[in-house]
Amino acid sequence: MAETTALLSRVPVFEALGDTDLEHIARVAVPRRFAPHQVIFREGDTSDTCYLVRQGHARALREHGDGRSIALAHFGPGDIFGELAMFDDEKRSATVEALDEVEALAILGQDMRRLMRDHPDIAVNLVVGLGRRLREANERLARQSFQTVQSRVAEVLVQLCEQARNEGAGEEDVLVTITQADIAQLAGSSRESASRFMAVLERAGVLTQGRGRVTIHQPGALRGYIY
Protein backbone atom coordinates (compact mmCIF):
# COMPACT_ATOMS: atom_id res chain seq x y z
CA MET A 1 0.00 0.00 0.00
CA ALA A 2 2.76 2.45 0.93
CA GLU A 3 4.61 1.79 -2.35
CA THR A 4 1.45 2.27 -4.40
CA THR A 5 0.57 5.48 -2.56
CA ALA A 6 4.08 6.83 -3.13
CA LEU A 7 3.82 6.04 -6.84
CA LEU A 8 0.43 7.74 -7.11
CA SER A 9 1.78 10.85 -5.39
CA ARG A 10 4.32 11.33 -8.20
CA VAL A 11 1.65 11.40 -10.93
CA PRO A 12 0.77 14.96 -12.03
CA VAL A 13 -2.96 14.15 -12.19
CA PHE A 14 -2.91 13.13 -8.52
CA GLU A 15 -0.39 15.67 -7.22
CA ALA A 16 -3.06 17.82 -5.57
CA LEU A 17 -4.42 14.90 -3.51
CA GLY A 18 -3.61 14.32 0.14
CA ASP A 19 -2.36 11.08 1.67
CA THR A 20 -5.82 9.90 2.70
CA ASP A 21 -7.25 10.36 -0.80
CA LEU A 22 -4.23 8.61 -2.33
CA GLU A 23 -4.80 5.66 0.01
CA HIS A 24 -8.42 5.41 -1.18
CA ILE A 25 -7.20 5.19 -4.78
CA ALA A 26 -4.43 2.73 -3.90
CA ARG A 27 -7.04 0.33 -2.50
CA VAL A 28 -8.83 0.05 -5.86
CA ALA A 29 -5.66 -0.14 -8.00
CA VAL A 30 -5.05 -3.59 -9.50
CA PRO A 31 -1.56 -4.77 -10.63
CA ARG A 32 -1.33 -5.64 -14.32
CA ARG A 33 1.52 -6.97 -16.45
CA PHE A 34 1.92 -6.67 -20.23
CA ALA A 35 4.38 -8.47 -22.48
CA PRO A 36 6.64 -6.59 -24.94
CA HIS A 37 4.65 -5.34 -27.96
CA GLN A 38 1.33 -6.36 -26.38
CA VAL A 39 -1.54 -3.99 -27.18
CA ILE A 40 -2.96 -2.65 -23.92
CA PHE A 41 -5.98 -1.12 -25.64
CA ARG A 42 -6.90 -0.07 -29.16
CA GLU A 43 -8.23 3.13 -30.63
CA GLY A 44 -12.03 2.84 -30.64
CA ASP A 45 -12.21 0.49 -27.63
CA THR A 46 -14.52 1.36 -24.77
CA SER A 47 -12.72 3.54 -22.25
CA ASP A 48 -13.15 1.82 -18.90
CA THR A 49 -9.69 1.73 -17.26
CA CYS A 50 -6.74 4.04 -16.76
CA TYR A 51 -3.20 2.78 -16.21
CA LEU A 52 -0.24 3.98 -14.18
CA VAL A 53 3.16 2.66 -15.28
CA ARG A 54 5.20 1.13 -12.47
CA GLN A 55 7.98 -0.35 -14.63
CA GLY A 56 8.64 -0.55 -18.36
CA HIS A 57 7.63 1.62 -21.30
CA ALA A 58 4.67 2.01 -23.62
CA ARG A 59 3.66 4.30 -26.47
CA ALA A 60 0.44 5.82 -27.75
CA LEU A 61 -0.31 5.51 -31.49
CA ARG A 62 -2.90 6.90 -33.85
CA GLU A 63 -3.70 4.61 -36.74
CA HIS A 64 -4.68 5.62 -40.28
CA GLY A 65 -7.07 3.68 -42.46
CA ASP A 66 -4.27 2.84 -44.90
CA GLY A 67 -2.31 1.01 -42.20
CA ARG A 68 0.08 3.79 -41.24
CA SER A 69 0.47 4.87 -37.63
CA ILE A 70 2.14 7.75 -35.81
CA ALA A 71 3.52 7.89 -32.28
CA LEU A 72 1.80 10.45 -30.07
CA ALA A 73 3.54 9.88 -26.75
CA HIS A 74 5.90 7.62 -24.83
CA PHE A 75 5.20 6.53 -21.26
CA GLY A 76 7.60 5.38 -18.55
CA PRO A 77 7.50 4.77 -14.78
CA GLY A 78 5.23 7.26 -13.06
CA ASP A 79 3.29 8.14 -16.21
CA ILE A 80 -0.47 7.66 -16.53
CA PHE A 81 -2.47 7.00 -19.68
CA GLY A 82 -6.14 6.45 -20.43
CA GLU A 83 -6.96 8.82 -17.58
CA LEU A 84 -10.14 10.17 -19.17
CA ALA A 85 -11.70 6.79 -18.32
CA MET A 86 -11.95 8.15 -14.78
CA PHE A 87 -14.68 10.50 -15.99
CA ASP A 88 -16.57 8.82 -18.83
CA ASP A 89 -16.84 5.72 -21.04
CA GLU A 90 -16.07 7.38 -24.37
CA LYS A 91 -14.13 5.46 -27.01
CA ARG A 92 -10.34 5.39 -26.82
CA SER A 93 -8.74 8.08 -28.97
CA ALA A 94 -5.48 6.17 -29.49
CA THR A 95 -3.89 2.73 -29.31
CA VAL A 96 -1.39 2.05 -26.53
CA GLU A 97 1.13 -0.79 -26.78
CA ALA A 98 3.91 -1.99 -24.51
CA LEU A 99 7.44 -1.44 -25.82
CA ASP A 100 9.01 -3.81 -23.30
CA GLU A 101 7.64 -5.68 -20.31
CA VAL A 102 5.31 -3.31 -18.50
CA GLU A 103 4.13 -3.50 -14.91
CA ALA A 104 1.22 -1.17 -14.30
CA LEU A 105 -1.57 -0.33 -11.91
CA ALA A 106 -5.03 -0.47 -13.45
CA ILE A 107 -7.81 1.68 -12.03
CA LEU A 108 -11.35 1.04 -13.23
CA GLY A 109 -13.27 4.15 -14.22
CA GLN A 110 -16.31 3.03 -12.24
CA ASP A 111 -14.19 2.66 -9.10
CA MET A 112 -12.80 6.19 -9.52
CA ARG A 113 -16.26 7.63 -10.12
CA ARG A 114 -17.52 5.90 -6.96
CA LEU A 115 -14.62 7.36 -4.99
CA MET A 116 -15.38 10.81 -6.37
CA ARG A 117 -19.01 10.51 -5.28
CA ASP A 118 -18.01 9.33 -1.79
CA HIS A 119 -15.13 11.80 -1.43
CA PRO A 120 -15.91 15.01 -3.37
CA ASP A 121 -12.49 16.50 -2.59
CA ILE A 122 -10.93 13.83 -4.82
CA ALA A 123 -13.03 15.03 -7.76
CA VAL A 124 -12.08 18.67 -7.17
CA ASN A 125 -8.36 17.91 -6.91
CA LEU A 126 -8.42 15.63 -9.95
CA VAL A 127 -9.92 18.46 -12.00
CA VAL A 128 -7.12 20.73 -10.75
CA GLY A 129 -4.52 18.16 -11.79
CA LEU A 130 -6.06 17.63 -15.22
CA GLY A 131 -6.34 21.38 -15.70
CA ARG A 132 -2.60 21.74 -15.11
CA ARG A 133 -1.86 19.01 -17.65
CA LEU A 134 -4.13 20.65 -20.21
CA ARG A 135 -2.45 24.03 -19.66
CA GLU A 136 0.99 22.45 -20.08
CA ALA A 137 -0.14 20.70 -23.28
CA ASN A 138 -1.51 23.96 -24.69
CA GLU A 139 1.73 25.77 -23.87
CA ARG A 140 3.78 23.02 -25.50
CA LEU A 141 1.67 23.11 -28.67
CA ALA A 142 1.88 26.89 -28.85
CA ARG A 143 5.65 26.75 -28.38
CA GLN A 144 6.10 24.06 -31.01
CA SER A 145 4.15 26.05 -33.60
CA PHE A 146 6.96 28.66 -33.55
CA GLN A 147 9.88 26.23 -33.32
CA THR A 148 12.06 24.88 -36.10
CA VAL A 149 12.34 21.13 -36.68
CA GLN A 150 15.75 21.16 -35.01
CA SER A 151 14.35 22.86 -31.93
CA ARG A 152 11.43 20.42 -31.67
CA VAL A 153 13.66 17.36 -32.07
CA ALA A 154 16.08 18.69 -29.45
CA GLU A 155 13.20 19.28 -27.04
CA VAL A 156 11.92 15.73 -27.52
CA LEU A 157 15.41 14.38 -26.80
CA VAL A 158 15.63 16.50 -23.64
CA GLN A 159 12.27 15.11 -22.46
CA LEU A 160 13.41 11.55 -23.15
CA CYS A 161 16.60 12.23 -21.18
CA GLU A 162 14.60 13.49 -18.23
CA GLN A 163 12.41 10.39 -18.32
CA ALA A 164 15.49 8.15 -18.39
CA ARG A 165 17.02 10.03 -15.45
CA ASN A 166 13.83 9.51 -13.46
CA GLU A 167 14.49 5.81 -13.97
CA GLY A 168 18.05 6.04 -12.67
CA ALA A 169 20.16 7.13 -15.65
CA GLY A 170 23.20 9.32 -15.02
CA GLU A 171 23.87 12.90 -16.02
CA GLU A 172 25.75 11.92 -19.20
CA ASP A 173 25.73 9.01 -21.67
CA VAL A 174 21.98 8.59 -21.24
CA LEU A 175 20.62 5.59 -23.14
CA VAL A 176 17.16 6.07 -24.63
CA THR A 177 15.39 3.16 -26.32
CA ILE A 178 13.42 4.68 -29.18
CA THR A 179 13.39 4.60 -32.96
CA GLN A 180 14.30 7.54 -35.15
CA ALA A 181 10.82 7.40 -36.66
CA ASP A 182 9.21 7.77 -33.23
CA ILE A 183 11.44 10.74 -32.40
CA ALA A 184 10.36 12.42 -35.65
CA GLN A 185 6.68 11.76 -34.96
CA LEU A 186 6.90 13.06 -31.39
CA ALA A 187 8.56 16.20 -32.75
CA GLY A 188 5.94 16.62 -35.48
CA SER A 189 8.49 16.43 -38.27
CA SER A 190 9.32 14.15 -41.20
CA ARG A 191 11.74 11.32 -40.53
CA GLU A 192 14.13 12.76 -43.13
CA SER A 193 14.30 16.15 -41.42
CA ALA A 194 14.79 14.62 -37.99
CA SER A 195 17.43 12.25 -39.37
CA ARG A 196 19.45 15.11 -40.88
CA PHE A 197 19.46 17.02 -37.60
CA MET A 198 20.37 13.97 -35.53
CA ALA A 199 23.27 13.33 -37.91
CA VAL A 200 24.46 16.88 -37.13
CA LEU A 201 24.23 16.12 -33.41
CA GLU A 202 26.12 12.87 -33.90
CA ARG A 203 28.96 14.63 -35.76
CA ALA A 204 29.12 17.17 -32.93
CA GLY A 205 29.52 14.34 -30.41
CA VAL A 206 26.26 15.13 -28.65
CA LEU A 207 24.80 11.67 -29.27
CA THR A 208 25.38 8.30 -30.87
CA GLN A 209 22.68 6.47 -32.78
CA GLY A 210 22.09 2.72 -32.82
CA ARG A 211 19.33 0.40 -33.96
CA GLY A 212 16.26 1.46 -31.99
CA ARG A 213 18.30 3.40 -29.46
CA VAL A 214 20.10 6.69 -28.94
CA THR A 215 22.88 7.38 -26.44
CA ILE A 216 22.93 11.05 -25.50
CA HIS A 217 26.44 11.88 -24.34
CA GLN A 218 25.90 15.58 -23.65
CA PRO A 219 22.26 16.20 -22.63
CA GLY A 220 23.03 19.77 -21.63
CA ALA A 221 24.22 20.62 -25.14
CA LEU A 222 20.72 19.87 -26.51
CA ARG A 223 19.29 22.94 -24.81
CA GLY A 224 21.47 25.10 -27.01
CA TYR A 225 19.31 24.02 -29.95
CA ILE A 226 15.97 24.88 -28.29
CA TYR A 227 14.59 28.37 -28.82
From TrEMBL:
Span of domain HTH crp-type: 147-220
CDD domains named in the record: CAP_ED (cd00038)
UniProt keyword Transcription, yes or no: yes
Transmembrane feature ranges: none
Keyword Transcription belongs to the record: yes
Any Pfam family hit: cNMP_binding
Gene3D superfamilies, alphabetized: Jelly Rolls (2.60.120.10), Winged helix-like DNA-binding domain superfamily/Winged helix DNA-binding domain (1.10.10.10)
Span of domain Cyclic nucleotide-binding: 13-133
UniProt keyword list: DNA-binding, Transcription, Transcription regulation
Highest taxon of source: Bacteria
PROSITE patterns in the record: CNMP_BINDING_2 (PS00889), CNMP_BINDING_3 (PS50042), HTH_CRP_2 (PS51063)
GO molecular function annotations of the record: DNA binding; DNA-binding transcription factor activity
One GO location term (cellular component): cytosol
Coiled-coil stretches: none
Alphabetized InterPro entries for the sequence: cNMP-bd_CS, cNMP-bd_dom, cNMP-bd_dom_sf, Env_Response_Regulators, HTH_CRP, RmlC-like_jellyroll, WH-like_DNA-bd_sf, WH_DNA-bd_sf
Protein name according to UniProt: Crp/Fnr family transcriptional regulator
Species this chain originates from: Paraconexibacter algicola
